[in-house]
Structures are given as C-alpha cells and as structure tokens.
Amino acid sequence: MAPAAASGGSTLPSGFSVFITFPDLLFIFEFIFGGLVWILIASSLVPFALVQGWVMFVSVFCFMATAALMVMYVIGTHGGETSWITLDAAYHCVAALFYLSASVLEALATITMYDGYTYKQYHENISAVVFAYVATLLYVVHAVFSLIRWKSS
Q1: Of the residues 13, 101, 131, 137, which has the maximum number of CB atoms within 10 A of its CB?
Q2: What are phi and psi of 126, to 5 degrees?
Q3: Which residues lie below 8 Å from residue 132, measured CB to CB, with a gap of 6+?
Q4: 153 near 10, Cβ under 8 Å?
Q5: Quick one: which H or E segment has residue 134?
Q6: pLDDT below 50 — which residues of the chain?
Q7: What pLDDT sits at residue 115?
Q8: pLDDT score, position 144
Q9: Do residues 101 and 51 make contact, with C-beta atoms less than 8 angstroms apart?
Q10: Do 23 and 141 form a contact (C-beta atoms < 8 A)?
Q11: pLDDT score for 1
C-alpha cells in the first residue's frame, strides 16, 4: 500500500470520517491517554516541582490542542487547504517532542523518589510515566504519518 493511501490520502478528513481515517483516528487515543497523564500528574507528588510543572504544562497543552484540532477537523474548519496539513504535521512533531521530554523527566523523578513518599504515591508516578510513554508513542506515530501526508500533498 502506498504511503499516501496508508495515511488516509493527502487531504484532511472532515466530519465524522476523522474517527475512521488513519492517522486521525489516533486523536481519540491521544485525548484519552493525555487526559490520564494530566489526572495522574495532578494527583501525584513529584519530588521536583519544576518537573511536575513541565509535565503538567505538556499534558494540559497537548490535551487542549488535540481537543481543539479534533473539533476543528470534525466541523471542517480546514476547508481542504494544504496549510492545515502543514499545521497538523508541525503540531504532532512538537507534541511528540514535548511528550518525550516530559516522559523522560517524569521517569527520572520517579526513579529518584526517596523516603517520605508512600507506596501509593510511587505507584501513581509509575502509572503517570507509563501513560506518558504511551501518549508519546501515539504522538510519534501520528507525527510520522502526518509528515507522510504533508509530503504527498
């Protein structure tokens, strides 16, 4: 199968076809796992406040931007213009990079947890790390296929 066909063509879908075309189908999973990261980081104790702040920023920013893009694609705001394909590819590349940095920092903070933290807090942080890496993988896959779509447009 050609790369353009594998990525749902060289145009962005509109309406509810957003939920059945690849890679735009990944919006749903990015939304879910990004929300889980946001909830877990907000409820957990991280040894370094700066790390928690960055991970919160990344999770909230990506959650809101993904939700906004998904809604705009469903209502057809893009109108089939190629500039939106560029925006889609750029956003997913930046989101993948942000989530990778947040995942690594959260993993480092979890590894360095020491006395004063309960077993439950440690497990919350492990869950946040796992979901952050899943979100990173989703954004990387979406970025790769968005770049293929961008190149073929």
Answers
A1: 131
A2: -65, -45
A3: 37, 55, 59, 99, 102, 103, 106
A4: yes
A5: helix 119-152
A6: 1-7
A7: 66
A8: 94
A9: no
A10: yes
A11: 39
Packing angle, helices 49-75 and 82-111, rounded to 10: 150
> Which pLDDT score is estimated for 116?
67
Provide the token pair at 58.
């990344």
- The predicted pLDDT at position 101 comes to 95
- For 75, counting Cβ atoms within 10 Å of its Cβ (0-12 exposed, 13-18 middle, 19+ buried), the class is exposed
Residue position matching structure tokens 């939700």: 67
HEC-encoded secondary structure of 49-61: HHHHHHHHHHHHH
CB 108 within 8 A of CB 132: no
Nearest partner of 30 among 150, 131, 147, 149, judged by Cα:
131
Query: How many CA atoms lie within 13 Å of 128's alpha carbon, on the beta-carbon side?
Result: 32
Angle formed at CA 35 by CA 143 and CA 120, multiple of 5 degrees: 125
Burial of 94 (0-12, 13-18, 19+ CB in 10 A): middle
